[in-house]
Design brief:
This protein is 44% helix and 15% strand. With 350 residues, the chain is an alpha/beta fold. The strands form three sheets. Strands 1, 2, 3, 9, 10, 11 and 12 form a seven-stranded parallel β-sheet that branches. It is globular, with a radius of gyration of 20 Å.
């Protein structure tokens, strides 16, 4: 049977009422609560120059999460590889995996925002794509080398010594989120865990295609994620749970409105249209909102999982203007009254 797994996703947004240090402390409290509740992992976005995220260096916060937890896995979803020096990135990954006792999840990507990439000197998508590919190539080569020799289009290393390795072999499990159907062939063939970014109705055919390609290539040699038995197919979901439907909706709508301002901040600043629809309840929204009492949320999440075909639920408990105590209460009610029933209700043949 294919089992449902649970994680947390967080943008680490700026706050109108909390200092940055208080925001970070709240995320550590969420991580500790998720660890105690038996969640699989916690994943942080990497953005820069936007109120959507004050997490411009995910490794710092991920390292703190590992110090506050014992079983919870954690990582960035994703590390935006064009923004990194490959040699330094390799060492950050090794350090995080060693410090955590082998609990790092390694999301890799090109970065979704050209506006943010421009801060790092990227002038076009092709340049960021080249840097992404070379950084990943350097990482793979470093994991099996004692000294790094690499002569690429952008990066060049000669006898750069390597004295640390990831604890997980050959490296931590890889994630690559995408809503682009053209990327399925690559991610599924290599067995990357993935998270779908798009309308719920578009998710199921995306995942069905992924499963088909993965099944066909699961025994191919040279797969990047060959050390992972089966891929996680994740869907993010904003969740606000309270004692009553009315209270949850009041909190959720206000928080979601603030989050929408944050996620569209850069495009609107540049005078560009919103990249996707993000209204709270519309069926074609990329980031729909689920609110309610535990019983209501259980029913809504079961339907969402049926529509999407996801086997990994990435819960967004903390977002927008939602107060820390409300986010922690949502996590508490979810883990106690919703999660156990979802685990049983959503298991299905692999």
């Amino acid at each position: 049977m294919e089992q449902l797994n649970f994680g947390i996703f967080d943008w680490v947004e700026t706050s109108a009422t909390l200092k940055p240090g208080e925001v970070y402390a709240h995320k550590l409290d969420l991580a500790a609560a998720a660890d105690a509740a038996g969640f699989h992992g916690m994943f942080l976005a990497e953005h820069t120059g936007t109120p959507l995220s004050i997490n411009g260096s995910p490794s710092v916060l991920v390292s703190a999460i590992f110090q506050r937890t014992r079983r919870l896995r954690a990582g960035a979803l994703t590390f935006c590889l064009p923004w990194y020096n490959p040699y330094r990135f390799y060492h950050e990954v090794c350090m995080l995996d060693q410090l955590s006792g082998g609990r790092l999840e390694l999301g890799v990507g090109r970065g979704v925002s050209p506006i943010e990439s421009a801060i790092y000197g990227m002038t076009n998508i092709e340049e960021s794509r080249d840097r992404y590919r070379e950084t990943l190539e350097v990482f793979f080569k470093a994991c099996v080398s004692r000294a790094l020799d690499f002569d690429g289009k952008i990066f060049h290393y000669r006898d750069a010594e390597l004295h640390v390795r990831p604890l997980q072999k050959p490296y931590p499990p890889l994630w690559f989120p995408s809503s682009n159907r053209e990327s399925i062939e690559f991610t599924a063939r290599h067995g990357y865990h993935t998270a779908f970014l798009g309308k719920p109705a578009d998710c199921k055919p995306h995942f069905e295609r992924y499963r088909e390609v993965w099944q066909r290539h699961r025994d191919d040699p040279g797969r990047h994620n060959a050390h992972v038995d089966a891929p996680f197919l994740a869907k993010t979901q904003h969740l606000v749970i309270a004692d009553t439907d009315a209270e949850a909706e009041r909190l959720g709508l206000a928080a979601h409105a603030t989050w929408r301002l944050h996620i569209h901040h850069l495009t609107r600043k540049m005078g560009l249209p919103d990249v996707h629809k993000s209204t709270p309840y519309d069926e074609d929204s990329y980031q729909r909102l689920i609110t309610g009492s535990p019983a209501t949320v259980l029913e809504k999440v079961q339907e969402m999982l049926r529509v999407t075909g996801a086997n990994y639920l990435l819960c967004i408990f903390s977002f927008g203007s939602l107060a820390p105590q409300a986010a922690l209460r949502s996590l508490e009610l979810f883990s106690r009254e919703v999660m156990p029933k979802l685990t049983l209700a959503s298991a299905r043949p692999a």
